[in-house]
Design a protein that fits this description.
Helix content is 18%, strand content 37%. It is of the alpha+beta class and 228 residues long. The chain folds into 2 domains: 91 residues, 2,3-Dihydroxybiphenyl 1,2-Dioxygenase, domain 1; 113 residues, 2,3-Dihydroxybiphenyl 1,2-Dioxygenase, domain 1 (Roll).
């Protein structure tokens, strides 16, 4: 595994139960805890000092350090460099690639089609610059549209949203799931799981139907379960 999401938790067992209830597959490898679904691997970090963010491995990290230091503060630890993007979300740059014995997961979670890691920022230009320095390239959108999607060589996708562009709560960072017309059935299923829905969204629906919802894991990570 090259790049992945790592999430904090105040209670490891609650976080494991949360993800299991959504049909993520749980796996413990040595002392590490992982959940996964199609196209998504999440490491659950129970340390109280940890902050949720993405962990990236760049084979040419040494060549990028000077440019990164000119754009943001880098904290160096034995295993990684850490930075905060303009949204305040953490990025951990691993000094060595990590290899796990995780089997490929073919099924999606109950949240539906995973569409990427999402952040909301005031300064899109500065944010885009940092992620370009980290090897991400634009795939869709644009600053003039209030959003842009980027992806790196390993296929890790990030959506950068301009502050004020989204008429709903925004938790930095969040994960987006886009399900089209199937989203109403997915929301119906989520309600049967007795999970707390942080926000019910009907602003995009002409009939005022709740067709998008937001939930949070025990550590506060946001999940946008949207039709598109």
């Amino acid at each position: 595994m090259k790049d992945y999401l790592a999430v904090s938790t105040p209670n490891l067992n609650k976080s494991i139960d949360f993800y299991k209830s959504l049909d993520f597959e749980y796996r413990q490898i040595a002392a590490d805890h992982f959940v996964s679904a199609k196209d998504l691997v999440i490491k659950i970090e129970p340390k109280a000092i940890f902050r949720s963010g993405i962990k990236l491995y760049l084979s040419d990290l040494a060549d990028r350090l000077e440019s990164l230091r000119a754009s943001c503060f880098l904290k160096e630890d034995p295993l990684c460099f850490t930075l905060q993007d303009p949204s305040g979300s953490y990025v951990y740059l691993l000094k060595e690639n990590e290899q796990w014995a995780l089997e490929p997961i073919n099924h999606a979670s109950y949240l539906g089609n995973y569409s990427g890691y999402s952040i909301e920022v005031l300064d899109m230009l500065a944010t885009i610059n940092i992620y370009q320095l980290l090897g991400f390239k634009k795939t869709m959108g644009g600053i003039e549209q209030g959003w842009i999607s980027m992806e790196n060589e390993s296929g890790f996708a990030i959506s950068i949203m301009s502050a004020g562009a989204c008429p709903h709560q925004f938790h930095n960072p969040s994960l987006s799931f886009f399900n089209g017309t199937k989203n109403l059935e997915i929301i119906k299923r989520l309600r049967t799981l007795n999970l707390k829905i942080s926000e019910e969204i009907s602003v995009f629906n002409k009939e005022g139907i709740v067709d998008n919802v937001i939930i949070n894991d025990p550590g506060g990570l946001g999940f946008f379960v949207f039709s598109d």
